[in-house]
Structure formats: structure tokens, C-alpha cells
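name: query_chain
kind: protein
chains: 1
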Amino acid sequence: LPIRLLADTAQTPAPDALNFLVFGDWGRRGEPDQAEVAAQMAKAARIFGPKFVVSVGDNFYMNGVKDVHDSHWKESFEDVYADPALRVPWHCILGNHDYHEGGDCDAQIAYHKINPRWNMPARYYQQTHQIDAKTTTDFFYLDTTPILGAARWSRKPSPMPPRRPRPNSLRGSTPRSPHQRRTGNSSSVIT
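structure:
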């Protein structure tokens, strides 16, 4: 990894900070690149003491998990992120590879019953975290894959939440997902 991405270059965090790790596109059955990233995450976790990890999708390459007993759980999650510094709650959301043929997204929701470190109570959820005695922050976990049309890979259609009218402040704006980027006056999807 480039030196600027190594955890050894991290600075000491503020003692009252809400520290957490965020990453995605990781479930590769413990391949060398995945193991190297996990080692750097563990180093960073020992420095920052994260309260949790946010996984932003594509949790299991190439085609998700088939059920809660799939060997992918052990090979890509439990064995790879086993360092004690990473044994914090993981708050996860689905990505398009979790939907690919053979992938059962409901298994990722149900896996919390097998391993309480894994948290995905639904395809869309919200959490509030305390920063200090007076301050909280909200995290919104949104499965954008169905919105982008990738649900065609799923054996089970993904239920969409009911649409709510946008507040006046958002009228005319375009919702964005982590899969989109702005290029000039138009948006393009990154896959």
C-alpha cells in the first residue's frame, strides 16, 4: 500500500471523538489484498479505538452469500477481521455484488443471530450515536442497489420503501448514492 494509506502514519485522535472505520468492497475469501487491508484496519483500530465499523456494501464477492451457513462468512469475515481491535459491532448495508446470482440478501440480515458483531437489521435503517453529553449524530444506511436497477441479479425482489414527498429544500435536487459521481452538468453511475 502507498505510505500515506498505512495506519502507522495516523495521528492520535481526540479523546472525546466518535471514532469508527468505514470501508466496502471487501469480501474476497481472505485473498492477500483483503488480508493486507484487514491488517492496516487493525493497526488503525488499535490507535483510534473505533466504536464500530461501517461496511458500505459489496460484502461478499462475487455473488454474495447463499445462506447464513455459507463458508464465505468464515473465509471472508470471521477469519479475516479476527483481530481483537476489530471485534466491535459492524453496521452493514448491501452492495450490488451481494445481489448477484446465488446471493441471498436476507441471509445477511439474518446473520446477526449467528454472529452478533454483524448488524444489518434491514435493507434500510437508521442509528443514532452519542458523540458527547450534548451531541448525537444520525447514520442512515440505504441499500441503493435496487434504486440503481441492480436488483435484477437477485432471486428475491427487494422491497422498496414507500416514497415520501421531498421537503421543499430538496425539490429539484438529485439524490446521490456512493455509486454516482458528478461529471459536468450530468451524473454518471460508477460500477
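note: The chain has five helices and eight strands.
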